[in-house]
């Protein structure tokens, strides 16, 4: 192997190592928090609405309907 071939090989190796290091040191983008907060807020509000509807709903009539109408 001649000196120029050796130098080219070293340069290719150095470029490959630099590319590999760049892949390893990839900076992560910060995650957004607002979608999580929006979903939590939506579920909190919807649970309060359902709880209010359950409390405010009229109680079920437990009497037998035909007996109330005088059909029996």
User: Into which percentage range does the β-strand content fall?
Assistant: under 5%
Task: Give a quick account of the main beta sheet: strands, pairing sense, barrel closure.
Answer: none
Question: Helix fraction?
Answer: 55-70%
- From the spread of the alpha carbons, the general shape counts as rod-shaped
Q: Report the radius of gyration as a whole number of Å.
A: 36 Å
Task: Tell me the number of helical segments per DSSP (H or I, 4 or more residues long).
Answer: 3
Distance between the termini: 110 Å
- Could you state the order of secondary-structure elements as H and E? HHH
Mean residue pLDDT: 85
In quaternary terms, these chains amount to single chain
Uncertain runs are none
* Structure summary, number of beta strands: 0
| Sheet/helix structural class | mainly alpha
Short descriptors:
mainly alpha; rod-shaped
Descriptive overview:
With 72 residues, the protein is mainly alpha-helical. The protein contains 3 helices and no strands. It has helices at 3-24, 34-56, 65-69. The longest helix is centred in the middle third of the chain and has 23 residues, at 34-56. The mean pLDDT is 85.
């Amino acid at each position: 192997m001649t000196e120029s071939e050796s130098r080219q090989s070293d340069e290719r190796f150095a470029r490959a190592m630099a590319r590999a290091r760049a892949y390893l040191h990839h900076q992560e983008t910060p995650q957004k928090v607002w979608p999580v907060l929006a979903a939590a807020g939506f579920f909190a509000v919807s649970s309060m609405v359902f709880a209010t509807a359950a409390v405010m709903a009229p109680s079920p009539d437990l009497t037998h309907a035909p007996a109330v109408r005088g059909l029996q």
